[in-house]
């Protein structure tokens, strides 16, 4: 599947001058296993499952692109609990300039926020951190960003963890993803850039919405 790789959130010169983390965040529509090396991405995140032995979706695509060495390597890792992350070499993806794969296991969405329980928010009005899944997904981003820092990653590409087979509501997941990237970049010079790699324009629009409305939802809950 060939998708255009167009950076689509323009950051203003003023943002850059102020070193606003938003200026270091891109949203593109692409296959994360077929990124243009010119973009300079040196690490990608895999939305894995607890076995770390491959699966469907982005996990399957990454295993196919990295080749059987990745599977062989991962057999030695003993899996990874939900909400945590492990780093591996990129194997077959190294020829694209990728040095690391940061595997993280997102939560399966249980639908808790849609039960109609008083105070339980719907997807878009959700107070993030309301559900156990919110916290597990947040943990994935914290772990991945800590690993990226540890391994001196300059430009990290991250897919929309948990929003496929694991059914996490996409607008909500985009806020958690952006909020954590933003918080990390405020405190750290590495990665220099974070690119959210979406598989469709619709998915990308969730990130743009999260970024464009950050003044409302990030302030309303203090920190992400
Ligand atoms: P999960 O099990 O964590 O939900 P999935 O792989 O099913 O993981 O989906 C996570 C997200 O990755 C979804 O938004 C899906 O559309 C997207 N996706 C699937 N394949 C790719 C790919 N090759 N590149 C980028 N994103 C992908």
Oligomeric assembly: single chain
The name of the CATH topology is Leucine Aminopeptidase, subunit E, domain 1
CATH class: Alpha Beta
Shape: globular
- Ligands, ions, cofactors: adenosine-5'-diphosphate
Name of the CATH architecture: 3-Layer(aba) Sandwich
Unreliable parts: none
How would you portray this structure in words?
The chain has 224 residues and is an alpha/beta fold. The protein is 35% helix and 15% strand. It is built from seven helices and six strands; from the N terminus they run αββααββαβαβαα. Bound molecules: adenosine-5'-diphosphate. The site of adenosine-5'-diphosphate (ADP) has 20 residues, from helix 2.
Relevant terms:
224 residues; alpha/beta; six-stranded mixed sheet; 35% helix; binds adenosine-5'-diphosphate
Nutshell version of this structure?
The chain is an alpha/beta fold and 224 residues long. Helix content is 35%, strand content 15%.
Summarize the helices and strands and which ones pair or pack.
Layout: H1 13-17, E1 25-29, E2 43-48, H2 57-66, H3 68-74, E3 85-89, E4 100-105, H4 132-150, E5 155-159, H5 170-187, E6 193-198, H6 201-212, H7 214-220
Parallel strand pairs: 1-6, 2-4, 2-5, 5-6
Antiparallel strand pairs: 3-4
The chain binds adenosine-5'-diphosphate.
């Amino acid at each position: 599947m060939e998708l255009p790789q167009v950076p689509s959130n323009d950051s203003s010169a003023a943002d850059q001058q102020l070193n606003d983390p938003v200026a270091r965040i891109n949203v593109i529509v692409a296959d994360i296993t077929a990124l243009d090396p010119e973009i300079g991405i040196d690490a990608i995140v895999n939305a894995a499952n607890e076995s770390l032995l491959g699966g469907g979706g982005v996990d399957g695509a990454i295993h196919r692109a990295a080749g059987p060495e990745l599977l062989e390597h991962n057999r030695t890792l003993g899996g990874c609990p939900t909400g945590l992350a492990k780093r591996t070499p990129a194997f077959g993806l190294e020829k694209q300039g990728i040095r690391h794969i940061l595997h993280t296991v997102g939560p399966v969405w249980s639908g808790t926020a849609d039960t109609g329980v008083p105070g339980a928010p719907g997807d878009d009005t959700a107070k993030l951190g309301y559900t156990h899944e919110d916290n597990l997904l947040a943990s994935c981003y914290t772990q991945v960003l800590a690993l990226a820092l540890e391994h001196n990653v300059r430009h990290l590409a991250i897919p929309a963890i948990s929003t496929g087979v694991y059914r996490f509501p996409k607008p909500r997941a985009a806020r958690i993803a952006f909020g954590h990237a933003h918080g990390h970049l405020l405190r750290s010079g590495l990665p220099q850039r974070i690119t959210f790699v979406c598989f469709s324009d619709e998915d990308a629009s969730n990130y743009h919405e999260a970024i464009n409305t950050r003044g409302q939802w990030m302030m309303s809950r203090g920190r992400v």
